[in-house]
Specification:
Layout: H1 5-17, H2 21-28, H3 33-43, H4 124-136, E1 153-155, E2 162-164, H5 177-183
Antiparallel strand pairs: 1-2
Helix pairs in contact: 1-2, 2-3, 4-5
The chain binds a DNA duplex (11 and 10 nucleotides) through helix 3.
Pfam family, one: GcrA
InterPro entries: GcrA (IPR011681)
Organism: Sinisalibacter lacisalsi
Length: about 200
DNA sequence: CCCTGATTCGC
DNA sequence: GCGAATCAGG
C-alpha cells in the first residue's frame, strides 16, 4: 500500500480528530500504526494543533545505535512544575475556544457512561452480540481470569456449566466490549419487579 | 500486558 | 519517502 492522496487525507483527518495511530492504521488497512506515525511525522503534523505554524523546536540530541547501549535519551523539553494542584480528572468541560480547536471529540473518557435518561433499554443489537459472544467465549474458569479477560459470568454457578467469558476486555473495564454494553444497564426493567 | 506516540536508521 | 524496530511513557 502506498500513501495516495486519499489515504493521506484520511490520515490527516483522523489524526486531527484525535484518533490514535493504531485506529487510523486499522481504518486505512495495509499499514501498521508505525507507518502511520512515521507518515504523521514526515507530514510535520506530529503536533495535533492544526496550525503547526508555531515554534518547531528541534532536539539536537543524537541517539546511539540503540542496540549495544540504548541509554541516552533526547530528553524532550520539560516545562516547569506547577506548584498549584492540578485537576486529576480530565473532564469534557468547555475549553477556551481560542486556543483549543479540538481535543478528543470521539473517544469517551474511559469511564462507564452514566445511564442515559432517554435510552435506558439495552439495545437489541447488544443482546444479540452478547449471545454471539457467549458462543465464542473462551470459557475460562475463575482462576484463569486475568486482569484483562472478560469477567462476565455465563451459566449457573451452582452447576458445572459455569464459566467466564474470558474474551479480551475493553481497556480499563472488567468486561469485553459486548458485555460492557450490557453490563451497565441502569436498572430500569427490574425497577418494578416483584420479589 | 495492554496501549500511546517518538525516534532512528536501513532500505 | 517508507516503516520496522526500538524507545519511552500511561
Amino acid at each position: 500500500m502506498s500513501w495516495t492522496e486519499e489515504r493521506v487525507e484520511t490520515l490527516k483527518r483522523m489524526w486531527t480528530e484525535g484518533q490514535s495511530a493504531s485506529q487510523i492504521a486499522k481504518e486505512l488497512g495495509g499499514v501498521t500504526r508505525n507507518a502511520v506515525i512515521g507518515k504523521v511525522h514526515r507530514l510535520g503534523l506530529s503536533n495535533r494543533a492544526g496550525g503547526s505554524a508555531s515554534a518547531a523546536a528541534k532536539p539536537a540530541a543524537k541517539e546511539k545505535p540503540a542496540k549495544p547501549a540504548p541509554k541516552a535519551k533526547p530528553a524532550p523539553a520539560k516545562k516547569a512544575e506547577d506548584p498549584a494542584p492540578e485537576p486529576v480528572v480530565e473532564a469534557p468541560v468547555a475549553e477556551t475556544p481560542a486556543l483549543a480547536p479540538l481535543r478528543k471529540p470521539i473517544i469517551p473518557a474511559g469511564q462507564p457512561l452514566p445511564p442515559q435518561p432517554s435510552a435506558n433499554e439495552i439495545s437489541p443489537e447488544a443482546l444479540e452480540t452478547v449471545r454471539e459472544v457467549e458462543k465464542t467465549a473462551k470459557k475460562l474458569s475463575l482462576m484463569e481470569l486475568t486482569e484483562r479477560t472478560c469477567k462476565w459470568p455465563i451459566g449457573d454457578p451452582a452447576t458445572p456449566d459455569f464459566w467466564f467469558c474470558g474474551l479480551p476486555v475493553q481497556q480499563g473495564k472488567p468486561y469485553c466490549e459486548a458485555h460492557v454494553g450490557v453490563a451497565f444497564q441502569p436498572m430500569s426493567s427490574r425497577r418494578d419487579r416483584k420479589r
